[in-house]
Fold this sequence. Notes:
The protein is of the alpha/beta class. The protein contains seven helices and nine strands. The protein has helices at 4-33, 37-48, 58-64, 96-106, 123-129, 142-154, 191-195, and strands at residues 85-88, 91-93, 113-117, 134-139, 160-164, 177-182, 197-209, 212-220, 226-234. The protein has a seven-stranded mixed beta sheet. A hairpin with a 2-residue loop joins strand 1 and strand 2. The longest helix is centred in the N-terminal third of the chain and has 30 residues, at 4-33. S-adenosyl-L-homocysteine (SAH) binds at residues 87, 91-94, 117-118, 120-121, 123-124, 138-141, 144, 166-168, 183-184, 237, 239-240.
Amino acid sequence: MKDCRHDSSFRLLRFAFCAILALPTATMRLVADDPVALQRERMVSEQIESRGIRSPDVLPVMRATPRHLFVLADVRSMAYEDHPLPIGYGATISQPHVVALMTELLAPAKKHRVLEIGTGSGYQAAILGQLAAKVYTIEIVPELARTAARTLRELGYSNVTVRQGDGYKGWPEQAPFDRIMVTAAPPEVPATLIAQLSRGGRLVAPVGSTWDQELILIEKTADGTIRRTSAGAVSFVPMKPADK
Ligand code: SAH
């Protein structure tokens, strides 16, 4: 009769040996292909998953998007740290956790047309572009709009269109939108943007005074009723009125 006990312990040993060999090899391959992939992996597990973001759509996109290519060269080494970073002209790229949180709240899907207000670096638009059909994004500072459009084009996010302009007006030619994300803080959710939201749509915005805001989720139901909920305190650059 065959000695099954010996057979299974041999298989176990062989498995353990292969696993030990395979683990570092896989990690080394990851690092060789993309030297910052490990930093990104750590960013997702330590800053995002650990704070309760679970969306199977959002997490892989946060893992895949090269955040370091959206920030200025002199702060590139800090691109995956747990805080916002300056991107010039008084603007900041949000903390990774806040990007993930707002994206999860917005719940974009592949069939959606999305409007973003406050393109900044283009990073949030790139995240949304991977989850939606089409992203329209508006930036008031011409230099930021130009740089973001170039970064997005060079990295191949071809379903994102950047426009320089005033976000308070929205994008009437392309309205209505299934999803709207505002990434600069207005004192109140602009009525124009709520008007440009589809029925069944969701809008996420930081609302309040300078540096002291709450994250608001607006849901427009199928009959056009507006439901408003708060998702906690946040701190964004103020949304500038067009004439300032
Ligand atoms: N989403 C960006 C970060 C946004 S920071 C990213 O992923 O990098 C907020 C941005 O909103 C700034 O770039 C600021 O210039 C822009 N902004 C401020 N007021 C605006 C307005 N009225 N219309 C459009 N953009 C505005």
